[in-house]
């Protein structure tokens, strides 16, 4: 008798198989999410799904993605999650469901500069005149040799050549062994095109059912229209609360005089070979004009571009265009020095052209210079929801997921930022909160220090410092302090070190973040104080962290050029700019910060917000509704008692 055709498993069957094989327990929230993701993919309906920590959301979207008939793209914001998916979740899932008959092929895809370039490694790096030089001197040269040896080993063993797998290095060191997309010769011209790590990654992606990438590459592919990812019809966006920030970053350009000067120097020998060479000199002169205009301008946002600066940008734009035209035509030789020099001029031209246009859809500002970094011009899109709606949501089915998508108690706020409307007949979507396996009402206390003075512009006041010492003392360490500035974190650390010398107090900047996190986890009588970069991604389950301190509601700075422009635009459109921009920004960060506390079923502790406005201001209700449903109090004595009991074990 002929064999009966294999019937594909349902999403609940495959999820159950995977969970059992991985030694986990079936969670109602995970099942509900997997079913909703499946329905969204089948019906072409966008989905926003909030899944609290511990839900197992990765499996809840990976299993439906494997069962979907066409390729699915998974986009993450952080390297940590991408690494978790590729190194842990996907291999274990593939092993668990290998006998189910589904296509379990997957690949990782990143921007070209994330891969080592074999041409640059074997042929050398161009100097400022565009000539290839063998090796920089000193410690930089030693590190480059180490990176080259690693890349050759990767090539010999069929490795990925990805930056994340490389020996420890700085950005400057990595640039010696990598190229961006403009500097690349292209596989057809490059003598090492057949071995190219970036090309091999793209080829693997074309053969794979799942493609794991990042928000930035997704934005470049879908929104900017530069083909980076193989054809797909569904994308799952994890860490979706970060999406608009990452899309904005991908569409942000910078320009400064030294960059224009360097592009001119690198062009000199190539332009001289193709023409008179004066075009490179003209570009250098334009760099001088740009430097003068930048020095005469005030840092901050430009509502309208100053005349001198506008004239300088036009000069740079036109000089860069002329310089590009002067490069030799029709040469088929794979001249890496020329390609990379020309790429630098193309970058300058594109950015200067965009800035000189002074479009209402862009925000232009000048950064403050530092000892290490000169002032620079920056341009970013005023909003990204429009392009996301027109170029991503209109063409693909999108599943957005995160532990933080409901702000103020509903999905509408986040939905609007990604391009979806509350009642959207054109692009139907739904929001689903599958809850959390944790009992926040019993596991966590939200303490709002209502008795403290509102925070001022001058950093922490004595009353806040006293409160921090009292809370840390009651917790006997075990504290993660999340502060609005590096100065505030360092001030708090100094006072705690002085008044509680029996505890170990670490501040961001004392060492690399992974090293600080390891110390923090290793000794419960430790405090770790830091800024924004600690708010997201730090995972410290257990009694290491029983107190999360937040010094103030994390509103954006009033002088933040981009967010202040977005707030003003929302007001002018008849909306409430403060709530739509500033309060939304604060709610997301506050929720992410509070989320550091409860990571497992056995975690217990306190989130202490030292900003009375959370209890007294009208917007406080919106912010609190964005947090996990913790038991709330404003009583400092009660909180200190609770922390002392926890510390006593």
From TrEMBL:
Enzyme class: isomerase
GO molecular function, one term: helicase activity
Catalytic activity: ATP + H2O = ADP + phosphate + H(+)
Domain Helicase ATP-binding: 16-287, 38-271
Domain of life assignment: Bacteria
Keywords: ATP-binding, Helicase, Hydrolase, Nucleotide-binding
Keyword Transport belongs to the record: no
Family statement drawn from the similarity comment of this UniProt entry: Belongs to the helicase family. DinG subfamily.
Designated name of the protein: DNA 5'-3' helicase
Source taxonomy: Bacteria, Bacillati, Actinomycetota, Actinomycetes, Propionibacteriales
